Amino acid sequence: MQFLDVCGLRRSVRFYKTWQPVERDKIQRILEVVRVATTCPGNLQPWRAVVVDATKLAPKDREMLLAADNYQGAHRTAPIWIYWFADPEDGKPQTFQKRVHQLMDVGALASCHGWTHDAIDASIEKGVRSPEGMPEIGGFLHNLPYEISVAVARGETIGACDVACLAAVNEGLGTCLHMIATVDKVAEVKKFLKVPDRWEAVWLQLLGYSAEEPEAGGQRPRLPFNEIFFEGEYGKPFPRDETVVNDLRKEGLLRAPAPKPERFEEIKHLARMFGFPV
After folding, report:
1. Closest by alpha carbon to 177, among 192, 193, 189, 165?
2. Which end of the chain has fewer CB atoms within 10 angstroms, the N or the C?
């Protein structure tokens, strides 16, 4: 699928074909894309995922995981549940130090920009100001509070989940992000999945073949372009060229806005099919 088609068709799908299993190779392909394509400062890679095939769960385990997410309708119909976590250990300065050394060793970071092994070590271990050309990491990473490492790990994992959603669309699947659990049930879910206590719960990604029509009722509402993008300074909207807009419509990024005329009838039909209140 072309990239702009993938972006234009990305929806939060909330009705899945319970009778159609997801092929394992498609799940692996999504995970491979996340591993390779997700950007991350210092190549930290703090994301971790546990894939659960809901169709193979014991009834009591399925019930517990659904209850933890307040029995959300989409969760009940999706056959694959991917639990995404962030490992704060991979958000720590020491991890940044190790991974940046690796990047320099493979030529991803250039010495002509100031990147050297000695400069990295001095910045992180002693707070020495970084050489010109490098980011000033000494003032930020030296003695970094653990809480910031947690925030960094969570933020980067959120980015990985966005990549995972686009990868799912590219595989012809529907997907949606949920909270892993309500606040009081997170520990129970982590215990069931046997993940380390330190891991931070980020998102639950639902995965399956969409029971909704391909565009799921149309493209979702978005804030106006000129309210969120600026040029040079805040208050000066970045000019929106209508020629570009028309090209993006032709290329599949910009599509018919929600709701499509038949959308609410479709929802009623799906509700009856899955036994939800109409």
Report:
1. 165
2. C
Measure the CA–CA gap between 161 and 148, rounded to whole angstroms: 20
CB 117 within 8 A of CB 100: no
How many CB atoms sit inside 10 A of residue 47's CB?
Answer: 26
Tens-digit pLDDT profile for residues 4-51? 999 999 999 999 999 999 999 999 999 999 999 999 989 999 999 999
Domain residue ranges in the chain: 3-90+146-274, 93-141
Q: Which 8-state DSSP code applies to residue 172? A: T
Give dist(CA 130, CA 137) in Å, integer.
6
Helices 117-126 & 93-105, crossing angle to 10 degrees?
A: 180
Q: What is the SS3 assignment for 229? A: coil
Residue percentage of the chain with pLDDT more than 70: 100
Token pair belonging to 204: 């639950």
Which numeric CATH code is attached to 3-90+146-274? 3.40.109.10
pTM: 0.96
| Beta-bridge partner residues of 210 | 16
Rounded Cα–Cα distance for residues 29 and 105 (Å): 28
Write the pLDDT tens digit of every residue in 152-181: 999 999 999 999 999 999 999 999 999 999
pLDDT higher than 90, residue 139 = no
What's the DSSP call for residue 21? P
